[in-house]
From TrEMBL:
Organism: Calypte anna (Anna's hummingbird)
Cofactors named for this entry: Ca(2+)
Gene3D superfamilies, alphabetized: 3.30.1120.10, Alkaline Phosphatase, subunit A, Helix hairpin bin
An example Gene Ontology molecular-function term: arylsulfatase activity
Highest taxon of source: Eukaryota
Annotated keywords: Membrane, Transmembrane, Transmembrane helix
Protein name per UniProt: Arylsulfatase D
């Protein structure tokens, strides 16, 4: 699915940010992130204000060249052809310089990879959902006879809300609702495969979002970034609960009782030590691991989260702190 960490550092094929350089054995998905440009809309998302400025300067150069050309041809004022040609060439080079980056964002950014190979450039948005499903199902079938870790990061509920025709218009909540319904269907398909392969009682499944709804995302009066209920703020709003408080849903029939609700505050950082413990391993001891295993909470052997403090940073700036005093 969506990796969003990029691929290279210093040169084209060093692959320092690639999933295969970060512990994964197989990768299929989008190495970058979804942008409006992937859909080919007239509403660019990448450095929009900067692009508007570049385009304004380009128009000013074009106007200057046309003015000089008109003055030269009508003898209103005298100007050398060399000046007009030089200005036109400089303007063209300026346009090519910035447009080669932003004008081809769909080609450079919106790609799919399998391991180190690019499979689609740009990717076919209509087939992306089915491609993701096929790859995921194939992975489960190849590894069903041994322990496996499968991380699926769907492209759904992220602008520009790529939704196949089958699900468009089905929800009462606009395009975002359609996108949620398609994501729900995809997750259901994957759970069906787990069940049909006889892996239901031996597979630990964790479903969550990486952040709350993006309240800034809208097109006219239509919201494109979801809704955060009673919680203030949203994605990118500096640590308010609407942006960082999301549900986590766990499924492990035969091991964890159904219908249990745990109100303790946990973190997505806890997934790593949880998976390591379930796999019978131990987390690295040569560094500080911020996450804590969720197994005691899930099994009911612990009543409170092991986190006394949780810190939320935006970049290097601390925006929010949660303190749950021990034994309180």
């Amino acid at each position: 699915g969506k990796w969003h960490m990029g691929v290279n550092c210093k040169y084209r094929r060093d692959h320092c940010h690639h999933p295969l350089n970060h512990g994964f054995d197989y990768f299929y998905g989008m190495p970058f992130t979804l942008l409006n440009e992937c859909q080919g809309t007239d509403d660019p998302e990448l450095a929009k204000s900067l692009q508007d400025t570049y385009w304004l300067y380009t128009q000013m150069i074009i106007l200057a060249v046309l003015t000089l050309l008109t003055g030269k041809l009508t003898n209103i004022f005298s100007v050398k052809w060399k000046v007009i040609v030089c200005l036109a060439i400089c303007g063209l080079l300026y346009f090519i310089t910035w447009f080669s980056s932003y004008g081809f964002t769909k080609y450079w950014n919106c790609i799919l990879m399998r391991n180190h190979d690019i499979t689609e450039q740009p990717m076919n948005l209509e087939k992306t959902a089915s491609n993701m499903l096929k790859e995921t199902v194939s992975f489960i079938e190849r590894n069903k006879h041994r322990p496996f870790l499968l991380f699926v990061s769907l492209l759904h509920v992220h602008t520009p809300l790529i939704t196949t025709e089958k699900f468009q218009g089905r929800s009462r909540h606009g395009l975002y609702g359609d996108n949620v319904e398609e994501m729900d269907w995809m997750v259901g398909r994957l759970l069906d495969v787990i069940d049909n392969e006889g892996l239901k009682n031996t597979t630990f499944i964790y479903f969550a979002s990486d952040h709350g709804g993006s309240l800034e995302a809208h097109r006219g009066n239509a919201r494109l970034g979801g809704w955060n209920g009673i919680y203030k703020g949203g994605k990118g709003m500096g640590g308010w609960e609407g942006g960082i408080r999301v549900p986590g849903i766990v499924r492990w029939p035969g091991v964890l009782p159904a219908g249990t609700v745990i109100n303790e505050l946990t973190s997505l950082m806890d997934i790593f030590p949880t998976v390591v413990q379930l796999a019978g391993g131990s987390v690295p001891q040569d560094r500080v691991i911020d996450g804590l295993t969720l197994v005691p909470l899930l099994r009911g052997t612990a009543q409170h989260s092991g986190h006394e403090f949780l810190f939320h940073y935006c970049g290097v700036f601390l925006h929010a702190v949660r303190w749950h005093q021990r034994d309180s």
